[in-house]
Fold each of these.
Amino acid sequence: MATSEIKLAIAQVASERGIPVEDVLNSIKNAIARAYAKEYGGEAESFSVEFDDETGEIKILDESGADVTKAGFGRIAVNAAKQALTSKVREVEKDIIYQDFIQKKGKIVSGNIFRIDRSSVVIDLGKVQGIMPYSEQVPSEEYRIGHRIKVLIKDVTKDTKDPQVIVSRASGDFVAQLFEAEVPEIANGTVEITAVAREAGSRTKMAVYSNDEKIDPVGSCVGQKGVRVQAIIHELFGEKIDIIPFSRSIEKYIASALSPARVTEVVIDEAEEKAIVSVPEDQLSLAIGKDGQNVRLANKLTHWKIDIKGTKTIFDSETGRQSEVRESSSSVSKPSMGIWDQVIAEAKAEAEKKAKEDQEILNKLSEEKTQASAENTEENSEETK
C-alpha cells in the first residue's frame, strides 16, 4: 500500500468515525515503531516514523535523525499500520458507546431479550448488550427470548472488550422513571418524587410532593380515573403501588406511609429516630401488612424505626370523634395526638351533607313525577268525557 493510499485511508476512517486525523496518524506511527523494534531490536521509543510523500515509502529514523529503514520492512510496516488503524477504530467506538450509555445512566431504555442464563438475562440494546443480574430481576416476572422489555440503566463500566451495561427492573428508581415518563407534572418538576421503597413484584410505596399548592401531587400521579398509575401497574405486571403525600411533619409523613391503615397517634423519639404508632385494633393487621411488609416499606420510605400498637377504639357516629383506651406508652418526646380525627370528622360531615342533598333532589324529582302523572290522568279523564 502506497503512502498516499495509507493517508487517504486514514483521512476516510477519521472522517467516518469522527476521529481526529492526528490521533489516528500517531497511533499508526507508534505501531510501526514497535514493529520495527521487535523485528530488528532496540526500544520503540528510540525510533520515529515518517511518511515520505515523494517516494511513497515509510522511513524509520533513529534518535539522531538518520534513516535506518531496513530493506523489506515495507510489508511489515503496512501490516502494522492496518492493525493500528483497526485497533484505533475499535477503541474509539468503545468510547463512543460508553459515553452514550453513561449519559443514559438512571434512565429507562427498551430492548429485546437476547439470551437467558442461570444468573442473568442478556438484553440487546442496539450498540451493546445489557446484563440484568439475578439481583436486578423481579422474581414474579417471566422473561422470554425475543420479548421486548423496558429496563433501567443502573451502571456502565469500561471493560477490556466492550463497555458493560448493567440494567435493572427491580430497582425503586425504575418505578420512579416510569412515573416521570407517564406524569407531565413530574417531568417538568412541578411534582417531585421524594422517596421510593420497593419490594419488587409485590408492592411499592412512593412519596410525592408538589411545588405548586394548586396541584395535588397524589392526584397527578394517579391520573383521571387512575389511567396514569394503571399504565405503570400494567408495566409492572400488577405490582401494588401506594402513592402518599410527603409531609415535612414527620408524624404525618409516618402516618401517611402506613397507608392504607388509619393512624390515630404517632409518638416520636427524635434522638433514636423511632416512632411508636397507634392504630385501631381492627387496623392493626392492615398497618403491619402481610409478613410485616407494610410497616417494613414504611420504614424504608421514612428512614424511621416504626413500632405499631393497637388501641381499643369506639367510633361515635354522631360526632365522628373517637374515644380511645390506650395501652401504656413508652416515655418518649414530642407526641402528636389524633392526627386524623379532624380529617375523619370533616370527611364524614361532607359525605352526610352530600347524601342529604342527593336525597332532597330525589324526593323533589319523585314529587314532580307524581304530580305530572296525576295531571296526565286528569287530562285523560276529561278527554274521555
Amino acid sequence: MPTATLTSKGQITIPIEVRRALGIEAGDRIDFFEIEKGKYGLRPRTGSIMDMKGCIPPLGRSVSIEEMNEAIGEAAVEAYRRGLSESAPASSEGAAA
C-alpha cells in the first residue's frame, strides 16, 4: 500500500503509482471528501464540462433563447440606468440661473 509523509507545512507527495492511477499531473487540483467520520477520499478535479451534468437542479421548465436574450437585455438596461444615476452631478440649491 502506498504511503506518504506529512511535512511541517501540511504537504504530502502523492506516490507515483497513485498519481498514475488517478491520472493526475503537476498543477492538477484534487478534491477531498469525507467518506465517514475520520475517513476521507480524494479525487482529481479534472475532466470535461459534461462531468458537471446534474450538479444544478432543474428549474422545472426550459428557458428559451429568446427569454435568455430578453433577461440579458433588461439587465443591461438596468445597469446602464444605474450607471447614469450614479454619475449624475448633484444639484446645488440656491444656485443662480
Amino acid sequence: MTRRLIWLACLPVTLFTGCAIHQNVRPVGAVGDNLVCVINNPDVRPSVMSSYKKALTEKGYTVRELPQTAAITDCRVTSTYRANWRWDLAMYMHYAEFRVFVDGKERGSAIYDATRGGANMNKFIDADKKIAELINQLFPGGAGMHAVETAAAPAQ
C-alpha cells in the first residue's frame, strides 16, 4: 500500500518533467562586422533560412547565403543552422539550432528543443516567431553593437 501511494505521488512529477521544452541561448556579443554569412542547409525547410535572414536583416546585418559546401572560415562571421518538424495532431518545429562562428571559432548558439515536449501543448509555436526570438537573443545588440563598444573605448 505504501509503495502504491509513493508511486502515485511521483507520477505527476514524472509526467510533467517528461514534457519539458528547452531553450538555451549563448549570445554572440560584438562581432565587429555587419556581414553574416549563413551556410545553406538543404535538409531544412527553406522558410527557416528566410526567417533567419529576415531576423538578422532587422538587426542591421547584411546576410550572404553560402552553399552547403562552404566552410565556417569562408567569412569572418559565419553561421550554421538546422531544424526539423514532427507531427502530433499538427506539424510543429521539433528542434532548431543556430551556431555562430567568428574567425572559425564558435562564439554563440541558440537551441530550441521540444524533443521531450510530449503532451506539452506549448510545442505548437509559430516557427517564424520562435526563430526571430532566438536570433534576437543570439545577437542581442545588433549590427551596431561593435561601433558603440569601439566609440566607448578610451583614447590612448
Amino acid sequence: MVKGRHASSGSTGFYRDLGLMVLGILLVGAVVFLILYLVVGDDPPEALTSTTTTQVVTSTTLDDPTTTTTASTTTTVPQSTTSTVPVRPPSEVTVAVLNSVGLPGAAGAMTSVLAEAGYQTQQAADFEPLQDPSRLWYREGYSAEANVMLQFLPDALVEPLPDEELKPGANVVMVLGSDYEG
C-alpha cells in the first residue's frame, strides 16, 4: 500500500523543484533590473558619478617666478568641485631652519640661502632628536609652499607640523636631518 508523496520510485520531483526555484530567482532578478532601468534610465544619478578636477600650480624656479608647472588629476567623487591651490611668493613665507644632524653652522647656512631666495627667515636653531631623513614641516595652508622648498632639500619628507608650539610664526619649519650634506 502506497501513501503520500514520498512513496514515488524516482527522484525527479527534487530536480523539478530545484529547477523551478532557480528559474524563479532569475525571474525576480530580471524584474528588479527592469524596474531600475525604467526608473533610472540610461543616466545614473548625479550623486553616483561626477568629476572633480584639482589643479596645483607651483613655481618651479627662483629666477623666473612666472614659470609654472600644472598638474591635473580627475577622479570620481560624490560631488563636483574645482579648486586651485595658489602658491605664495617666497616673500610671503616665513621659514625656520633647525639643525638635527649636529653639523655646526648648517642651519645658519641654509637660513642664509633661503633669505637670498627671498624667504622671510627666523633665527636658526638646533633640534633633537635626529631626523632621518630631513623634514619640511608646514602649518595648515602651507603645504604647496613646503613642496616648492624641496628644491633646497630634495630628499626631505613634507609633512604637517607635528607640534603647533614649535617655532611660532614660521609657516614652514625645515629640519636638516641625517641625509643633509651641506
